[in-house]
Amino acid sequence: MRHCLLGLLMAASVTANAAVQTQEIPYTAADGTKMIGYYAYDDAIEGKRPGIVVVHEWWGLNDYAKQRARDLAELGYSALAIDMYGEGRNTEHPKDAMSFMQAALKDADAAKGRFNAGLDLLKEQAQTDTDKLGAVGYCFGGKVVLDMARQGVPLDGVVSFHGALATETRAAPGSVKARVLVEHGAEDSMISADDVAALNVEMVKAGADYQFVSLPGAKHGFTNPGADAHQKNGLDVAYQKAADERSWRDMQRFFEDTFGPSTPARAQ
């Protein structure tokens, strides 16, 4: 009886101490740029689990991107918020953000190299099931993950949240290997109706496994509780709780369908 009680107390202690673990990990992109990744996983889960790359908004690798990595870890994923600007650079100023974004996107091959460097880092983590990989992106990051799908990067699924939809190079038939989910604000003034229509035509012609969700009343930045603070800079952005929660549920179902009911069991 005493041994049974001791075992129960030890199990309770393990459960109580289990938590999402985080770590900043330096890495280097193919172009030599020094990057910083923010890795998160739940140590109460045993074994390997699907890996998700998180790509930040145009603000850079900030607290919001890191929070989304922790949120994904809580769902049972191995999550890495990657750095597309270098040295973990981030800003609160729109002019700086625009400059960082334009620099990161001016060379499509370099952008792909930076994404792949982050993907490789995620695959190196002991908790990651390298046969089950996905990516999510926000704003600028939404464009990045869509572009990676267009270019046939080996991912099982990508989710774009209020992402830029236009591209310099459209997907060729058969090039999109990943399943694609786009969560778009119906009132997003930063994305034109022509861009929405062009994406839909592009994905159909490419033969992609593709879903597009238009969220009523939602503006650009609808997932980020800090979006409203940027209205003072003249940006037409706003957080919308209903759209944030609905799009997150959509993402969960999407990855469950993509990976199967694969959230590993938590340690008892």
Automatic annotation (TrEMBL):
Family annotation (InterPro entries): AB_hydrolase_fold (IPR029058), Dienelactn_hydro (IPR002925), FrsA_esterase (IPR050261)
Domain Dienelactone hydrolase: 40-257
Taxonomy, superkingdom: Bacteria
Entry GO MF terms: hydrolase activity
Signal peptide: 1-18
Keywords: Hydrolase, Signal
Protein name: Dienelactone hydrolase family protein
Species of the source: Stutzerimonas stutzeri (strain A1501)
Phylogenetic lineage: Bacteria, Pseudomonadati, Pseudomonadota, Gammaproteobacteria, Pseudomonadales
